[in-house]
Design brief:
Pfam families: TadE. Keywords: Membrane, Transmembrane, Transmembrane helix. This is TadE family protein. InterPro entries: TadE-like_dom (IPR012495). By secondary structure, this protein is an alpha+beta fold. The protein has one domain. 45% of the residues lie in helices and 17% in strands. It is built from 3 helices and 3 strands. Strand 1 and strand 2 form a beta hairpin. The radius of gyration is 26 Å and the shape is rod-shaped.
């Protein structure tokens, strides 16, 4: 067989090979991009929860009672956390509430929780069957201990 005959018989092989290999490469690329963005969103939520907990340490003026001071600190914590997660289209739900410190019940703590429903608002459009491997929600929590002498 001459070279010319071999080329004519091999003409469509590359297109067939490409059509077989391309979906595999695309799925791997899609998985890398999707999980990278999920990782970035989770780290962003964790940072926002930590910064919200730090904001709860700041003194809140005009508080009349300890419960009022704790409520104001919780509000400040959520405001700070929400400001840091605004790139998630304000879809992250924040809750900050006084919680008992697990190591000493006589102390006051505030727990900040951020919850982003990834299943309802995915950052990357999901492919069929990929939804099974993605998290339903991304949750970040941070807790801070308040100085009992400086709550008010």
């Amino acid at each position: 067989m001459t070279r010319r005959t071999v080329r004519k018989t091999q003409r469509g092989n590359m297109a067939i090979e490409f059509s077989i290999v391309f979906p595999l490469f695309f799925v791997v690329f899609y998985a890398i991009v999707t999980y990278s963005i999920i990782f970035v969103a989770q780290q962003s939520l964790t940072l926002a929860a930590e910064e919200g907990a730090r904001a709860a340490l700041r003194f809140q003026a005009n508080a009349q009672t300890v419960d009022d001071a704790l409520a104001r600190r919780a509000t400040a914590a959520c405001e700070t956390a929400k400001n840091l997660t605004n790139w998630l289209a304000s879809a992250a739900q924040c809750s900050a509430a006084p919680a008992p410190c697990t190591y000493d019940a006589s102390l006051r703590c505030i727990q900040v929780t951020l919850n982003y429903g990834y299943a309802q608002r995915p950052l990357v459009p999901t492919l069929p069957l990929f939804g099974l491997a993605l998290p339903g929600s991304l949750i970040a929590r941070a807790m801070v201990q308040l100085d009992p002498d400086n709550v008010l």
